[in-house]
Amino acid sequence: MTLSESPQNTLFLKKLAAIVGVENVLASIEDRLAYAYDATPMRENVPIAAVRPTSVEHVQALMRLANAENFVVVPRGSGTGLSGGSIPVERSIVMLFPAWKRILEIDQENLTAWVEPGVITADLHAAVEAQGLFYPPDPGSMKVCTIGGNVAENSGGLRGLKYGVTKDYVMGLEVVLPTGELLRVGNKCVKDVAGFSFKELFIGSEGSLGIFTKILLQLIPKPAAAKTLLALYDDMQKAAGTVSAIIAEKIIPCTLEFLDATTIRCVEDFAHVGLPTDAEALLLIEVDGHPAAVADEFEKVQTICTKHGAREVKVAKDAAEADKLKTARRAAFSALARVRPTTILEDVTVPRSQIANMLQRIRDASKKHNVTFGNFGHFGDGNLHPTCLTDERDRDEIHRVEKAFEEIFLAAIDLGGTITGEHGVGLSKKRFLEKVAGPTGVEVMRKIKQVFDPNNVLNAGKIFDPKPRCEAPLPAAATGF
Fold first, then answer.
1. pLDDT for position 174
2. Helix axes 355-368, 395-414, angle to 10 degrees
3. pLDDT exceeds cutoff 80 at 5
4. What is the mean pLDDT of residues 160-170?
5. What's the CA gap between 106 and 62, in Å, rounded?
6. Tens digit of pLDDT for each residue in 181-201?
7. How far is 276 from 227, CA to CA, in rounded Å?
8. What is the rounded CA–CA span in Å between residue 463 and residue 429?
9. Topology adopted by domain 223-331
10. Rounded to an integer, what is the distance from CA 262 to the centroid of its chain?
């Protein structure tokens, strides 16, 4: 720990060190800068310090100190968030969980797993699949992101169409509240309606209502079989029509993803998976389940793809080849990020029937403001990821990018959709929240936040702004900053 020369800061850092140990307070300028941003190309403030608690008691003590000293605690997983949810705000510390990586229990009888919040999502996949079980949520950053972050953001993934998202697999939580109390909600019971269901409040609350210290997850049996294909199109409308036809046939693939022309070209240049760079659209489709059902559904899917204009259908012969085909989708963000200095990955969700219209609105905004977008995402559930390739050093271009995104968000709302399907609101979209939730909805959220966090010390300023000081006075600034 490197203490600043300020006697007040030195005293404050010593208070942190008295709780977690001097080795777990990171206060050098290099450490502070390292935790001043996440995967969103934005930055608010440099934190006072980054702190690594190693016990529940540490987390509780830090929250009590935050209330006493009037500073903000910003919980952080792997920093892969895409809405600014773990970016430090004024007068804040960042709370890190690198040691919280234990899978505490895999319960075969009850099909559950207790995990700590720092468990990497892909590590949980591997651990449960080795026992013939399955944890479906699979965010694009699953090799890096943490379960705690997934719960905080209610993360989705490629398998969301068939299996749902993170909230569908959370059965219980151990949570440190903003005031320092420890709350346990949920259990291994499939049915439990005793009292309010608090866990739904915490899931997707973006670290603003509590800090997870243990998470109870539901598991399911691992699907016995799976088959994967890539379908290539010369027309995005035909790809969209294919998706509608598959769903109309009462087939629910576990994966139904798409890439547009810009993204296809970038992926092929990056990953060299054999994609034709003149294709306008690509669908990645996987069906899973009982072998007989998979064979029947997969044959129907192939027929539908061809009937609706796919110029080529590539079928994976085995699991290794399926993984190669999936690389085309999983590499989308990395491939696009190589094109320009700054990559802004967003998400909007619309009803499936409006996907083609939403893509056209994105193209219109891109052309109007003269900025470049690549598009990919979850065609099956209407969740699109318009990704702008730009340069944050060019202020005029960034201004045009902001205008384009504003039109895209408003278009999603106009088409009956929403401003975020899995990335959260965080800092980047909070000015649009009222257009989705309405003024009453936002006010109710503020009231809930006030009940849990009366001094506004946990991830303050995310999702929505607090009331102005004249309406809701904040505690006086603490000495020592």
1. 98
2. 150
3. no
4. 97
5. 30
6. 999 999 999 999 999 999 999
7. 22
8. 8
9. Alpha-Beta Plaits (3.30.70)
10. 23
Let me know if the fold of 223-331 is the same as that of 340-428: yes
Is 394 a residue whose pLDDT tops 70? yes
**What topology does CATH give the domain 340-428?**
Alpha-Beta Plaits (3.30.70)
Count, in order, helices (H) and strands (E) of the chain.
Answer: 15, 19
In angstroms, rounded to a whole number, what is the distance separating the alpha carbons of residues 338 and 226? 32
Beta strand 220-221 pairing with 133-134? antiparallel
Residue 227, CB-side half-sphere exposure with 13 Å CA sphere: 17
In angstroms, the Cα distances linking 371 to 78, 149, 332, 397, 404 are 30, 31, 18, 8, 8
Model pTM greater than 0.90?
Answer: yes
Question: Per-residue pLDDT tens for 285-300?
Answer: 999 999 999 999 999 9
Helices (H), 48-163: 56-69, 121-129, 147-153, 160-163
Ordered alpha helix ranges (H), 317-432 = 319-330, 332-336, 355-368, 395-414
Cα–Cα distance, 41 to 470 (Å, whole number): 32
Interatomic CA distance for residues 77 and 35, integer angstroms: 11
Nearest to 380 by CA among 255, 226, 281, 235: 255
Cα 120 to its chain centre, rounded Å, is 13
Q: How does pLDDT run across 408-426, given as a tens digit for each residue? A: 999 999 999 999 999 999 9
**Domain residue spans of the chain:** 1-99+431-481, 103-221, 223-331, 340-428
Cβ–Cβ < 8 Å for 171, 216: yes
pLDDT, residue 330, reads 87
Nearest Cα to 379, choosing from 252, 294, 270, 290? 252
Tell me the CB-side half-sphere exposure of residue 74, using CA atoms within 13 A: 32
| DSSP 8-state secondary structure symbol assigned to residue 331 | T
> What is the residue whose two structure tokens read 């379908």?
231
Core vs surface per residue 397-413: b (16+ CB within 10 A) or e: bbebbeebbebbbbbbe
Is the pLDDT confidence value at 480 over 60? no
1-99+431-481 adopts what CATH topology?
3.30.43
Give the CATH architecture of domain 103-221. Answer: 2-Layer Sandwich (3.30)
Which pLDDT does position 468 carry in this prediction?
Answer: 59
Please report which confidence band the pLDDT of residue 349 belongs to, taking 50, 70 and 90 as the band edges. very high
For 385, the token pair is 């990821």
List beta partners, residue 255. Answer: 286
Beta bridge partners of 342: 390
Q: How confident is the model at residue 266 (pLDDT cuts 50, 70, 90)?
A: very high
Confidence of residue 164 (pLDDT cuts 50, 70, 90): very high
